[in-house]
Design goal:
Largest sheet of chain A: 9 strands, parallel
CATH topology of chain A: TIM Barrel
Strand content of chain A: 5-15%
Low-confidence stretches of chain A: none
Order of helices and strands of chain A: EHEHHEEHEHHEHEHHEHEH
Number of domains of chain A: 1
Oligomer: homodimer
CATH superfamily of chain A: Divalent-metal-dependent TIM barrel enzymes
CATH class of chain A: Alpha Beta
Strand order of the largest sheet of chain A: 3-2-1-9-8-7-6-5-4
Distance between the termini of chain A: 11 Å
Shape of chain A: globular
Largest interface: A-B, 29 and 29 residues
Number of strands of chain A: 9
Helix content of chain A: 40-55%
């Protein structure tokens, strides 16, 4: 297991972590100043400053992209099929233009939440079928673009409205069916916030192996958690044994970035960008 | 599958559903007036009016107890072992005195939350070991008392602070290890709120079979959910396909009560008891 205690060369900042404090160019600038070598930006942040300007800033700062957030939201009414397909293809193309390591997929939940305007339904099994079909279709485009797709299993509390793939086992079942040859075109993003509770986690990380482990995200689970979406904790402030999980991932050969992704409306989004990034660096060394 | 549309003979009210509106005797009185044949009371509600008074009221109302809430909270510092054991034995004895169908176990999460004052820890695997040891020890006492123990897998969002058994598969693994003979002394409580998201749910219900299906709880998952604990929805107001899950349970031979358990600080706990119970009756017929 790599020693993170003396530098932060393997730290990546998911730019949602400081999305309230500035635009993407200012985030890139701050990361560059602090010796942070990688980021993972969100599509809306890129769109706000422009894809070309983002690409220039990334090149200028010699930044790596540990991922690009995000594709997905596959369940939808049939009338929206073209919208879903085109939107996801654009996400792949943007990720490729920026040189991202992978496109993270938040697959969507029930159709009325995944693609608003779709007819309300309660059939989560059907949504799961639509997700798998959607990933299968996108995979052709992603292969041509050379862009790996990383399915991110989300915590089960998001099953209805954000992602109906909620366990590593389910995500890897999809990988096995759509990419049985383990070509590297399809894998998973392991976010400790979503999967830390799973008694099957160690075994599923081993099942994934280095071929399928495309990204590793960290933050912490706070007790109490006061908001289902926007109350993630800084590493070390919660109950997740992050080093243990990182050990499992690295035992498989994962040697990529540890990406900090914190949505924190009442705490970290309220603090200055420098303070948040400095804390990420410190906690990356001490608690990851 | 039983037809619930024309009467409510298989409705049970978990008395936490109207805990803010009155004490347990007033809840029993209201249920009796409305032809509700079963309840599932909480220990603190029983303690507030007395075990003997509760037993008399239950007999007088000819009520069944679909369960008794709750035993558990096993993870703890070693110094608290006697407290944990004695507390759980008392819960078994109370359940037996009241003639409950089972004692529901909310097994506890990390020790500092399960039994406050215990040393803080992040080792959820250790907590799970303590849970299984605790259930194993309690089982002897429960067998002598003739009181079945129902492990309730709780939603993964409660893994840290309430229950580190979060899937049917895990609960049934424990059952298989501690009661391989399927004697009826140990089983599960299936609460749709906790397990609806699980892609393995149908298979695990089949694995449980009638021997292990000791209780069936209903409410609904709201989108958005504004509080992790106290924002459960009335059946029909959320996204859970409750009839589908009831169908799976009944296909195994389950023929017990459908127990309504709603913690709803901002909505149902604010309404008059009669309105809540009338709505439970109506939704039991139309949405369960």
């Amino acid at each position: 297991m790599r020693d993170f205690s003396s530098d932060h060369r393997w730290l990546s900042i998911n730019t949602a972590t400081v999305r309230k404090q500035g635009d993407l160019l200012s985030i890139i600038d701050a990361c560059t100043r602090k010796g942070i070598r990688a980021i993972s930006p969100w599509r809306d942040q890129v769109a706000a400053v422009g894809l070309d300007a983002t690409a220039r800033a990334v090149r200028s700062g010699e930044l790596a992209l540990s991922g690009y957030c995000r594709g997905g939201m596959f369940p939808a009414d049939p009338a929206k099929a073209a919208e879903v397909r085109d939107d996801n293809r654009r996400a792949v193309d943007e990720a490729a233009a920026l040189g991202a390591a992978c496109l993270v997929l938040v697959v969507g939940g029930l159709p009325q939440y995944s693609r608003p305007g779709s007819a309300p339904g309660k059939d989560i099994a059907l949504a799961r079928t639509q997700v798998e079909d959607g990933i299968g279709e996108l995979l052709d485009h992603a292969r041509k673009a050379g862009m790996p797709l990383a399915i991110e299993p989300l915590h089960p509390m998001y099953a209805a409205d954000r992602a109906c793939v909620n366990t590593m086992a389910h995500a890897l079942d999809i990988c096995d069916r759509l990419d049985p040859g383990r070509t590297g075109a399809l894998g998973v993003a392991v976010d400790v916030y979503h999967v830390w509770w799973d008694p099957d986690l160690e075994a599923q990380i081993a099942r994934a192996g280095t071929d399928r482990l495309l990204a590793f995200h960290v933050c912490d689970w706070l007790v109490p958690t006061t908001d289902l979406l926007l109350d993630r904790g800084m590493m070390g402030d919660g109950v997740i044994d992050i080093p243990r999980i990182r050990g499992w991932v690295e035992a498989q050969g994962f040697a990529g970035y540890s990406e900090v992704e914190i949505f924190s409306q009442a705490n970290w989004w309220e603090r200055p960008m420098d303070e948040v990034l400095d804390t990420c660096i410190e906690r990356h060394r001490s608690a990851v």
